[in-house]
């Protein structure tokens, strides 16, 4: 996990979970820009706008939390992108099939490996459907480079 912080918001990035759909890049390019270093500029927009964008991250690779003394109303920071979302919400799991992309699992979820070991726990996880991911069972976005299309959409 990598953290990007100012006095009002902390953006947490879990690169191993990113499915690279570019949702953040398109929604808020002044904050999320791969051509800049660091690629996350927490001063590029109001924290409430950053929160709304992170709440749309399909893989859960981007999360947020509020530092002590933040000006952000805590009620506006309770979305699925909140780092502590799983602990504050009842267990409801949704699984969404993305067209020509991964399965998106939303809700408190634990992914276990072959031996029963915990691979990942979170509120949003993307699972590979194409079989090309270098990070299986998780999606790494390679399906778009391979121009993968399923034989039949569900």
Automatic annotation (TrEMBL):
One of its GO terms (cellular component) is cytoplasm. It comes from the Bacteria. The lineage of its organism: Bacteria, Bacillati, Bacillota, Clostridia, Eubacteriales. InterPro entries: Divergent_4Fe-4S_mono-cluster (IPR010693), FeS-contain_CDGSH-typ (IPR018967), MitoNEET_CISD (IPR042216). It comes from Desulfosporosinus orientis (strain ATCC 19365 / DSM 765 / NCIMB 8382 / VKM B-1628 / Singapore I). The keyword Iron applies. Keywords: 2Fe-2S, Iron, Iron-sulfur, Metal-binding. Residues 112-149 form the Iron-binding zinc finger CDGSH type domain. GO terms for molecular function: 2 iron, 2 sulfur cluster binding; metal ion binding. This is Iron-binding zinc finger CDGSH type domain-containing protein. The keyword Iron-sulfur applies. Pfam families: Fer4_19 (PF06902), zf-CDGSH (PF09360).
